[in-house]
Amino acid sequence: MQFKTLEDYVGETPLVRLKRINAGDGNVILAKLEGNNPAGSVKDRPAMSMILRAEAAGRIQPGDTLIEATSGNTGIALAMAAAIRGYRMILVMPENQSVERRQTMRAFGAELILTPKSGGMEVARDMATRMRDDGEGVILDQFGNPDNPEAHFEGTGPELWRQTDGRITHFVSSMGTTGTIMGTSRYLKQQNAKIEIIGCEPAEGAQIPGIRKWPEAYLPTIYDASRVDRIEPVTQADAEEMTRRLAREEGIFAGISSGGAMHVALRVAAQVSNAVIVSIVCDRGDRYLSTGVFPA
């Protein structure tokens, strides 16, 4: 008998129907629980994909140093994947990310370099690039690596099509690196071009972990605007309130970007009837406890 390893359990996450948060007018809202991945987020998929495909192409080999700029979940997932596969992992991130995220990365053996919060992810990405250029390691580049969306084209999309028996009518996802929405959209549109793909971005002034509106110079190169039918803004207050509602009313303990996406899913539900709307629950709420989003 051949036993599985941890990396074999990335993906195939549950898809559950909301029971108490009312979708109205014959609609069904389904939550894809990506927090059930081994390192606790949807980013486990691209992290394993980028490392395994880079190994197969001969670009990296165990013992090498990997560098990545991250706001949290990708860093945690890469730290886990690096621990499994035998890499030194250096993560560059803004200093204002939650203490739970930093502690989790270090628990997996990653080394952290913190950049000023005023510079955001842009400064972290610039520093990672300089380190790479100075020969300090290899950047997998979640923002420009096609192996990021490919993980969702091969995994998330087929899972949703199968789990809904092809009945999915709308797909809602927060947008950060945009890998999730790019890969999933490509697969779902190949099955049914009428499926509507909705992206979530932060409203003006909102700071929601995991949801970004990038300056043009930093827009992820994996992003293809033609793969998103529409983009909906979400406020920080609405994202945080829906995150609390998911826990209180549905027992779904999720992160703030997941609340933002679910708020948009309900907005979509108010405009349609007899729809099957899938929203990505990107991660678990336990890595946001220190942010104050949940009552103490």
From TrEMBL:
Pfam families for the chain: PALP
Family statement drawn from the similarity comment of this UniProt entry: Belongs to the cysteine synthase/cystathionine beta-synthase family.
Metabolic or biological pathway, per its Swiss-Prot or TrEMBL entry: Amino-acid biosynthesis; L-cysteine biosynthesis; L-cysteine from L-serine: step 2/2
Top-level taxon in the UniProt lineage: Bacteria
Modified residues (N6-(pyridoxal phosphate)lysine): K43
Residues noted as binding pyridoxal 5'-phosphate in the record, renumbered to the chain: N73, G176, T177, T178, G179, T180, S257
Signal sequence bounds: none
Keywords, comma-separated and alphabetical: Amino-acid biosynthesis, Cysteine biosynthesis, Pyridoxal phosphate, Transferase
Name this polypeptide is given: Cysteine synthase
